[in-house]
Design brief:
With 72 residues, the chain is of the alpha+beta class. The chain contains 2 helices and 4 strands, in the order E-H-E-E-H-E. It has one domain: Alpha-Beta Plaits. A two-stranded antiparallel ribbon has the order 1-4. Strands 2-3 form a two-stranded antiparallel ribbon. The structure holds iron/sulfur cluster (2 copies). One iron/sulfur cluster binds next to helix 2. One iron/sulfur cluster (SF4) binds next to helix 2.
Length: 72
């Protein structure tokens, strides 16, 4: 069986689009979406595979609960 990879989940409804997670991701995984969320912001999304589970995004995000990083 293939080893499970780390994964980032952005809870788009809580994102205020400050962009800090995008800047601090070493793998360039995160990007601004073209959808506006319930709070009125163009929420961040995980735009590609390759998350290494470093948790930079989780640690820098000022919005509680907006980012979950899963490390198998
Ligand atoms: S955990 Fe690290 S590699 Fe994964 S999305 Fe967040 S900052 Fe990028
Ligand atoms: S750091 Fe948090 S609030 Fe800021 S863009 Fe990323 S997910 Fe959204």
């Amino acid at each position: 069986m293939e080893k499970e990879q780390p994964k980032v989940i952005i809870h788009e409804e809580l994102c205020k689009a400050c962009g800090l997670c995008i800047i601090h991701c070493p793998k360039d995984i995160l990007a601004t979406s073209d959808k506006i969320n319930e709070l009125g912001y163009p929420a961040t999304v995980a735009a590609k595979e390759g998350c290494i589970g470093c948790a930079n995004c989780y640690l820098i995000c000022p919005e509680p609960g907006a980012i979950t990083v899963i490390k198998p």
